[in-house]
Specification:
69% of the residues lie in helices and 4% in strands. It is mainly alpha-helical. The chain has a domain at 57-152.
Length: 169
């Protein structure tokens, strides 16, 4: 280890990053007359790691929000939600391996949804297959682990029928 960094970061990988950042700085200076006075070393050692951490936190919070919105919309906590939360947590509990597994899961899920939408017109993902599987085995009805309708109330998405005998010309 040199400078408390793994050797690979001091070798080819670091040199490639330095070249990309230097080229970007030169492009901004020539094209837009916007010189960047920050040293390339500071960008690599300080700016990029904090940017990666911030981006990871934003994606984590966004994913939790979308999962919570889906649970609220369906008024139930299903097996698919549990699987999604486990995969989301795996990326942050064991970052090198868990993050790889988590990213692979979500990319596979999105790819499967796109494939199914193009084939059948229904975007069915891994979670839908998990819900069907546990329902088929008889473990959980429609994959529902916890029914939240007593807490959240039922959904009333239907429009009320007003004057059912009225004909509009």
């Amino acid at each position: 280890m040199i400078n408390n960094r793994p050797l690979i970061w001091n070798g080819i990988k670091r040199q490639r990053k330095i070249k990309y950042i230097h080229d970007a700085k030169q492009y901004l200076k020539r094209r837009w007359n916007y010189p960047i006075k920050t040293q390339t070393r500071d960008i690599i050692d300080r700016t990029l790691p904090t940017s990666y951490k911030r981006a990871g936190r934003v994606l984590f919070v966004t994913s939790l929000f979308l999962e919570g919105r889906d649970i609220y919309k369906e008024r139930a906590f299903k097996a698919s939600h549990a699987l999604d939360l486990i995969m989301l947590g795996a990326g942050f509990i064991a970052p090198p391996v868990g993050l790889t597994i988590s990213i692979a899961y979500f990319l596979t899920d999105v790819g499967l949804m796109i494939y199914n939408y193009n084939k059948t017109g229904n975007a069915k993902g891994i979670g839908d297959y998990v819900n069907e599987f546990v329902d088929h085995k008889g473990w959980l009805e429609n994959g529902v682990i916890w029914d939240l309708t007593p807490l959240l109330g039922s959904t009333n998405d239907s429009l009320p029928i007003v004057n059912p005998g009225l004909i509009i010309n």
